[in-house]
Specification:
Chains A, B: This is CSC1-like protein At4g02900. 2 copies of one chain form a homodimer. The first copy, chain A, has 35 helices and 6 strands. In chain A, 37% of the residues are buried. Chain A has 756 residues and is mainly alpha-helical. Chain A folds into 3 domains: 397 residues, no CATH class; 161 residues, no CATH class; 85 residues, no CATH class.
């Protein structure tokens, strides 16, 4: 077991590496050439057009040494923006996300003070370890609950403090839920007119042999919402078209690349090969080749677009139905339309950019089956993920490779390569899996059939939280793989399990302290450096960028990685709650994590991230629930811990806590959750009335006309416009008549009918 | 362990006792004097005015011996009425309730056949018990799974059959859920105009310092449902008034009693004493005394009624809000009104007679607290109910009584009394508790704050189901009290618990067979005899009845005791599922129970019961869920059983079943449950449109005017009218002006305002 000095060394190393990241960040962000990497948000907002040019600033390298001296001044700057302005600037999702770190601080600052004031002295004077002979112990253990003799009266101090901590957590959670619910309501009330306020996502439209889908929808809503129905927008299965558009983008990039090349050295026309990745095949003139390829693809895209728009089979039995008032949309979203609850499903429409288009057309039975399969898959992924990795690892040793590829034998047998393979390959399989994990989980959530990106993110976070809980927390406390834990859990009395886990908790304190420093401190410092986007930007900048506009497109502002970051915070909150009475010395490390993360993420959402959607903090009920789960785990484990220390009575005193926690959860849920899932009619009516008074002549139909068009129809037109601007007008790739035809043809499909 | 012969004897005894009940019933029901006990439903329907008088039938005793010969002909008669007519006659609740027995038959008839065709031969030829030396066994054990040697390949037969049984159960459950959902929808669609179709129950109206509750409600709905709001009915806190009305009824009964007495012997005016129960106090003329008492009470009632109607403090912050169309009511019931989810709560109004008035005014925080307390109380009631009973039992022995009441010593010490106390008292405490249990559970549900009788019934059934499951099923399989089981469950590995329980299941087969015969067969036969209502009716008939109308009031048709009967059926379904592969010989006993119960209850709902409310089979999702719970318990226990028989592999094969069961539940829930809790707008619109076409001049406001008046306001007026008819017109107790004033005064409170 590590002693205080070991921890000190580790802390120094991690602090230094974090500091190195910070210094690197401070230096890099001041270079004008990196401006678009570290301040993309401002470019996207249109506030900053190009790097600030003060007198002393060179075009690529900043030579103003005064600025280097104040290299940490981004920290106060990150805190300076007041919250209302932050919400205005970065959206409610981001503003509330950084509040999760603040929640951690709110819970743990008083807890840390109290724990150090009460529990550390109680533990320090416990004197068990000093008098135990032949036992090696460290200073950290002397500060922990291990220093209290079994069945001691001193445990009452821990019990009382844990009650205090639990009640404090309830209080903070309740206050925060209340605040964020009101923030959300205020945010929604203050929003300007948006298409999703008037629109409902309709799914599982039953097919009618006599009518087209469009007619059928129209008739249904004319009958059942006679005074309120306005129009609807059909959904097309444009997956193949989206693929074509994606492919075209790639070809365009190559064309631009070769054109740039030609421009720089006009003496030699660039050539390329027609085969795979330009490596094989016949040599051709690159610019000509890509131009013709692009032309071909554009034609195919045209045909496909026409096909999608005209082919009735390309229609998905789903639609976006818009109403004349927000009130009517709220009504339709909250009510059941048909007596068969699997058809005519209505839900509040996500905002247009939040929609996950692929999942709009899954019938009920299929959805139920997918959920079943994914639940089973999640179970195996969580508890048995080590099995395939161990299999890969067993393959990836010297003998395995030699068996499969005998011809590689002479190379592998060389000493240097052998040691690399033996030392590196086994670990890399696990590392790759862990890097891919969030994507795997996201793919699983997509299969489950959620229709909006925000819902997908929330669901993925839930899965990742389960994985971290089982494999990081329990996996570290109880040794062995998750599957072995599960077996243990099933084959042991359930009280026994909490006891063994509870008992080994104090011993793992030093491990978790190191974990917090490596994963938390250094990880967050790496986040602010944005190494990958930095490299990517400069690569793009070198090869693809011609104009400032291109440069803006080469920016990758990224966004908050909610499915990964949130479960991590939850792990730290869980650690804090568990160790608050067991080993209070861990708490300051968590405090540093929360404070530092709060700073970094506040800086990032102000200067960098560009959110893909705005859900209005719809994730808060999930955050709340997971903190409650953490609190409950902490309470159960402490009960196990106390009963192992022969303090059965005190353990019994804790029984009320999990029940109380559950009740607090139910209470808060009933009190606030509906603010995140339902849509009060009163608020809708207020906005409707206000709008009617201020804009009596609003043409809502025109406003909503193209709001819910599949992005490939929208993007392509946008792209084409950019294309025209950038390229020579004579380029025949973009027949201008198409653009106009599209915009005239598209609405005809649904609006001419609804006018009828 | 009992052998086949013992079971045969027990079966004979129980069959004979059931037969005795049936014969008694057959004889009693033919006597005209009992006609109102055994056919009250027909009297209430107004189809039967007095006992059938054929030529041979005497006024009190039936002397037509032909009718006695066909004494079992009620059985085919009970089956004759087709289901649609049954629904029309007895309501959907009753018709669906007897379908639960049919569900049992549907599940278990094929299961029984298959089990006897496959499993009984497999078990019989297992040969373990015959070769085991020194083991006593019975024929029943030879037919059970106990006869299969450990780790035998024969277990595969059981596994395959259990899969077949499970899938058959899924299929039947799915089919039945589907059928009953469509029955409910058809039933609701076919219903005539009813007040609850237009009405929403509004609760937790926030208090406004500037406005009365009525004004506040009106303004809110005029703003937020401007085109649809019609009127509302306030709710008064009339608990004290209800008490007065109840007291008055009692006094009236006494008055009638003495008047009857006087009529029969006009020579002597009856006297009574003014003290407690007419046993002490001064002697007075009875008729005069009760007349003046009644007069006094009527005056007090008048004053109280006026006070309730005029005092703003007597208003409860709840109301019944009515809309112009069913569509608007459906919208309001399903949407959230305010951004604060604890005020302006709307839900579909129960039908007027279904309302539980006392619970209409509980604020949110109180409700959450009540639920917490009741959950804890339910836990203790279920697991620790033996503690207070054991305490009472310990008091109720000879020494205990002697200690507390030393003066009773000489009496108690007598041998006869001593043996009675010792043999009888300990048992009676438990018996009284078990009889009171449903009422205790109902009181707990009332405290939880449900607003309708049907919801209370469903909730109580849930509690009773938990109690039966823990204390009857697990209590019989695992010996020891429920609390000991709980400790065992917590201190053993969770797999170990299912193993021990699973292991002891085959041994308990004979016990449960006896239980089915005593509780099931004889209990149902006793149900049809209706001994308590029979006695009560004749007592009332002798002392209180003057006219045929009085006689009708003396009838007590009773109603289906859903909270008690349904959990019992669930116990039998659970037993059938568990023993279907373990001891198939138990299945025929269950079949007899289901078939016999089906007959009896079908007879009862046709001829006897008068339901207090009609919920449209809203209980079916609960029934479905509890069958699923039973199936899951059976699956888990069988896994335990197989793994105890060293058939670990086969046990592992069963793992998929609980997951599948859970999924089937989720699937059915998603598919059908909303038919029981939500209100499709389409159906509402259809009814609205139809009504608009057929009755364009309907005055809905007048129709709804008094629909949701507290029953004390209604009952009293009805009663008064009866009173006037029966009694002399000169009776000054009922000033006729009051009746008229009431009906003119009452609506003014809420309707004049809503006209404004």
């Amino acid at each position: 077991m590590a002693n205080l000095q070991d921890i000190g060394v580790s802390a120094t190393i991690n602090l230094l590496s974090a500091l190195a990241f910070l210094v690197a960040f401070a230096l890099l962000r001041l270079q004008p050439i990196n401006d678009r990497v570290y301040f993309p948000k401002w470019y996207l907002k249109g506030i900053r057009g190009s790097p600030r040019r003060s007198g002393h600033v060179h075009n690529f390298v900043n030579l103003d040494f005064n600025m280097y001296i104040r290299f940490l001044n981004w920290m106060p700057a990150a805190l300076k923006m007041p919250e209302p302005e932050l919400i205005e600037h970065a959206g409610l999702d981001s503003a509330v996300f950084v509040r999760i770190y603040l929640l951690g601080l709110k819970i743990f600052v008083p807890v840390t003070f109290l724990a150090f004031a009460v529990l550390v002295p109680v533990n320090w004077t416990g004197d068990t370890l000093e008098h135990a002979k032949g036992l090696t112990y460290s200073d950290i253990d002397k500060l922990s609950i291990s220093n209290i003799p079994a069945a001691s009266k001193r445990f009452w101090a821990h019990i009382v403090m844990f009650y205090v901590f639990s009640f404090w957590t309830y209080y903070v959670l309740y206050k925060e839920y209340k605040l964020i619910a009101s923030m959300r309501l205020r945010f929604l009330a203050a929003q300007k007119r948006r298409p999703d306020q008037f629109t409902v996502l309709l799914r599982n439209v039953p097919l009618d042999p006599d009518e087209s889908i469009s007619k059928h929808i129209e008739h249904f809503f004319f009958v059942n919402h006679p005074d309120h129905y306005l129009t609807h927008q059909l959904v097309y299965n444009a997956n193949y078209l989206a693929k074509l558009v994606e492919k075209k983008k790639g070809l365009q990039n190559w064309l631009v690349y070769y054109e740039n090349k030609y421009e720089r050295s006009p003496t030699q026309r660039p050539t390329t090969k027609t085969g795979l990745w330009g490596l094989w095949g016949t040599k051709v003139d690159a610019i000509e080749y890509y131009s013709t390829e692009l032309e071909k693809l554009s034609k195919e895209e045209d045909k496909e677009r026409e096909k999608v728009l005209s082919d009735p089979d390309a229609l998905i039995p789903a639609a976006f139905v818009s109403f004349k008032t927000r009130w009517a949309a709220a009504v339709c979203a909250q009510t059941q339309q048909s007596s068969n609850p699997t058809i005519w499903l209505t839900e509040w429409a996500p905002e247009p950019r939040d929609i996950f288009w692929d999942n709009l057309a899954i019938p009920y039975v299929k959805l139920a089956l997918r959920k079943l399969i994914m639940a089973v898959a999640l179970f195996f992924l969580t508890f048995c993920f080590m099995i395939p990795i161990a299999f890969v690892q067993s393959l990836a040793n010297i003998e395995g490779i030699e068996k499969v590829f005998p011809f590689l034998k002479p190379i592998i047998e060389k000493k240097v390569i052998k040691s690399v393979i033996q030392g590196f390959l086994p670990g890399i399989a696990l590392k790759i899996f862990l890097i891919l994990l969030p994507r795997i989980l996201m793919a699983m959530s997509q299969i489950e059939g959620f229709t909006s990106l925000s819902a997908l993110d929330r669901r993925t976070a839930e899965k990742y939280h389960l994985f971290i809980l089982v494999n990081v927390f329990f996996g570290s406390v109880v040794t062995g793989t998750a599957f072995q834990q599960l077996q243990k859990f099933l084959n042991e009395p359930s009280t026994e399990f909490t006891k063994t886990v509870g008992d080994s908790i104090p011993m793992k304190a030093t491990f978790f302290i190191t974990y917090i420093m490596v994963d938390g401190w250094a990880g967050i410092a790496a986040e602010i450096l944005r190494l990958v986007p930095l490299v990517m930007f400069h690569l793009k900048n070198a090869f693809l960028v011609k104009t400032d506009q291109d440069r803006d497109q080469a920016m990758d502002p990224g966004c908050l990685d909610f499915p990964v970051s949130e479960p991590r915070i939850q792990l730290y909150i869980l650690l804090g709650l568990v160790y608050s009475v067991v080993t209070p010395i861990l708490l300051p490390f968590i405090l540093v994590f929360f404070a530092f993360s709060y700073l970094v993420y506040r800086h990032q959402i102000i200067n960098v991230y560009n959110q893909k959607y705005e859900s209005g903090a719809a994730f808060w009920p999930h955050v709340h629930r997971r903190v409650i789960i953490g609190l409950m785990i902490a309470q159960l484990l402490l009960m196990g811990l106390f009963s192992m220390r022969e303090a059965e009575q005190s353990s019994a005193c804790l029984v009320a806590l999990p029940i109380l926690t559950l009740w607090v959860h139910k209470f808060c849920q009933g009190r606030f959750e509906s603010a995140f899932v339902k849509f009060p009619l009163q608020d809708a009516m207020v906005k409707d009335t206000l709008e009617k008074a201020t804009e009596p002549n609003l043409d809502l139909k025109a406003y909503l006309k193209d709001a819910y068009v599949h992005p490939v129809f929208k993007d392509s037109s946008l792209e084409q416009i950019t294309f025209i601007d950038d390229d020579e007008e004579s380029n025949s790739l973009v027949p201008t008549k198409r653009t106009s035809r599209r915009s005239s043809k598209f609405p005809s499909e649904d609006n001419s009918e609804s006018d009828a």
